[in-house]
Design goal:
Layout (H helix, E strand, L loop, with lengths): L6 E5 L12 H12 L8 H8 L7 H15 L4 H4 L3 H12 L20 H9 L3 E5 L4 H11 L7 E2 L11 H11 L7 E6 L2 H13 L5 E6 L8 H13 L4 E3 L7 H7 L1
Parallel strand pairs: 1-2, 1-4, 2-3, 4-5, 5-6
Length: 261
């Protein structure tokens, strides 16, 4: 079979490489519950609804927004609340990373992986460049990429390195590292699980229409409980710009890549 050439795949991490429904999303719920004095714990649907707005890729900011909206529903204004963002971040991290800064013992330790190391080996053998652009912190991203998956020096643009999605700056930076002037104007696939990820591809296309951009949606595991829930979520990704939607990232293989270019 003819292998795809001059192709780059950039992956989001959360919901694509690892299942964060019991970690990041659980930490969001814990944080909102804590800062609303146990008055409100957002459901997975509440969090998905917020994420579908395409503006809340950063889970610390998403937590803060849900706290604000709860109190607004009780008749208070944001000015009255004066939430301390750093306090929200610190509490979130105590749940997600845990209480030991050296040896993490939080929810991150139990995240199911959604991909195998061999998948990336197959991409390399097919001549496909690949890397990661994620809203996760560099430490959190490397925890799964290096410690869990065993990838060697993966190309990564993380939270600290670029503005949050849907700003495509980090996507461009990832591509530049992968191409390294050796494969100019590659076809770029960006694989993500949120509306913000698909908006990122659209904005990248608006800024650089000299290459082919392909948005690939992946349905996160917690959405796949029912077919109806999956179909609704997939439609939102398509409306946001996804060319195709898969249940698992490994479905984006050489055959499907050729069909999508």
């Amino acid at each position: 079979m003819t292998q795809p050439t001059n192709t780059i795949i950039v992956f989001d991490i959360d919901g694509v490489i690892r299942d964060v429904s019991g970690s990041y999303r659980r930490a969001i719920a814990d944080t909102v519950e804590h800062f609303t004095a146990q008055a409100y714990r957002p459901t997975p649907s509440d969090i998905d609804k917020l994420k579908s707005e395409g503006l809340w890729n950063n889970d610390w900011e998403a937590s803060q927004e849900l706290i604000y909206r709860h109190f607004e529903s009780q008749g208070q204004t944001r000015e009255q609340l004066q939430l301390e963002y750093q306090a929200i971040v610190a509490f979130f991290q105590s749940r997600y990373r845990g209480t030991d800064p050296e040896n993490w013992n939080g929810y991150i330790c139990n995240e199911p992986l959604l991909v195998t190391p061999s998948y990336f080996e197959e991409l390399t053998q097919a001549g496909i460049g690949w890397g990661f652009f994620s809203g996760a912190t560099r430490a959190s991203a490397n925890y799964v990429l290096i410690k869990r998956l065993g990838l060697q020096s993966p190309i990564l643009i993380a939270m600290e390195d670029a503005p949050g999605k849907p700003d495509p700056t980090g996507l461009f930076a990832t591509i530049n590292i992968i191409e390294n002037s050796n494969h100019p104007k590659s076809t770029v696939f960006y694989v993500g699980d949120t509306v913000a990820d698909m908006y990122t591809v659209q904005k990248a296309r608006d800024l650089d229409n000299s290459r082919t951009w392909v948005g690939v949606g992946v349905i996160p595991p917690h959405i796949q409980v029912t077919a109806n829930q999956r179909d609704i979520y997939a439609e939102k990704l398509i409306q946001a710009g996804a060319k195709v939607v898969f249940n698992n990232v490994q479905e984006l293989n050489s055959h499907n890549i050729l069909a999508l270019i």
